[in-house]
Amino acid sequence: MSGGARTDTEAVEQANTAFYEAMERGDFEAIADLWLDERHGDVSCVHPGWPVLTGRGEVLRSYALIMANTEYIQFFLTDVKVSVVADTALVTCTENILSGGPAEDGAELGPLVGQLVVATNVFRRTADGWKVWSHHGSPVLAESDDEEDDEGAV
């Protein structure tokens, strides 16, 4: 691997990390800055359980909506793989998400919920660094309690 390729991979890893850290902070301006702008083509986003969102305005509105309805979110990324070819990079990872919604009944925070999502993030190189071109998150379906009980049966 050449030094340039390693540098690109590290830069993409940093951009990917910045994307998740901005979500954790609820920093809409940082999220907006990380997405590709219209000069470089249409962006797309699929949140788990959502239809495809196309175009910067629609995608950024979705993040504003998620942030407005999420009091707490933390991502633990695992299985991160980065592939860079020319000015395009592909990142696949598992998002181990811990989140909480608005508090109920006077509590400080709503109940925390864990979720497992596999994600594909596509980045494009720009004069301003690597920017998110597409994000696709798909939920990982957990085994039901019935399946677990069957495995333990003798």
From TrEMBL:
InterPro entries: NTF2-like_dom_sf (IPR032710), SnoaL-like (IPR037401). Residues 12-140 form the SnoaL-like domain. Pfam families: SnoaL_3. This is 3-dehydroquinate dehydratase. Gene3D superfamilies: 3.10.450.50. SUPFAM superfamilies: NTF2-like (SSF54427).
